[in-house]
């Protein structure tokens, strides 16, 4: 299956992408991974991307599209893939459609993870990270530490990242609504969109998604 995964910040796209890709036996292709791989390998596209990133500028669509096309052409993506973070706007969606047409392929579904805006803010703004080890993550509501402000694992101080403040989260949501959400309408016009609720336990959301895609989740 060839799937695009969309949803607002805090919808759990990264987590669901990993589980869905495993269940469907297809590679999970994320924009972040594409950038890191191309930059670390020093590919021509990676060098271009690094120039823009180092200058504090957005990486142009054509560079991102080039990376995605190259990754989708790899042998492990021959029977399908799950795209996470790409396309990010309608121009990229149109370019993806064109690239697939040239290869005689097409998307099978666009999985839209739906989460109420207030829940997104609650999920992200409630995160607390350990200053000693960023892998130690807690949440004031869903996974609170035994002692407020103290990491259960190492005793380090817990803090809220600047990117996780409510003000920043709401700005990120504005960007999502303006730039990325229109691709849902674009793909809905093609009859590809499958919308599911991303509320609840991770496993329940995965089962919901697999059912919507007409597949059974692995036990």
Automatic annotation (TrEMBL):
Gene symbol of the encoding locus: adk
Which Pfam families does the protein's record reference?
A: ADK, ADK_lid
Query: What does the entry note on its domains?
Result: Consists of three domains, a large central CORE domain and two small peripheral domains, NMPbind and LID, which undergo movements during catalysis. The LID domain closes over the site of phosphoryl transfer upon ATP binding. Assembling and dissambling the active center during each catalytic cycle provides an effective means to prevent ATP hydrolysis.
* All residue ranges annotated as the Adenylate kinase active site lid domain in the record: 127-163
* Catalysis: reaction(s): AMP + ATP = 2 ADP
Query: Which pathway is recorded for this entry?
Result: Purine metabolism; AMP biosynthesis via salvage pathway; AMP from ADP: step 1/1
Q: How does it assemble?
A: Monomer.
**PANTHER family cross-referenced by the UniProt entry:** NUCLEOTIDE KINASE
Q: What class of enzyme is it?
A: transferase
What are the EC numbers? 2.7.4.3
Q: Which residues bind ATP?
A: 10-15, 127, 137-138, 200
**A GO molecular function for this record?**
kinase activity
Taxonomy, superkingdom: Bacteria
Q: What is this protein called?
A: Adenylate kinase
| Keyword annotations | ATP-binding, Cytoplasm, Kinase, Nucleotide biosynthesis, Nucleotide-binding, Transferase
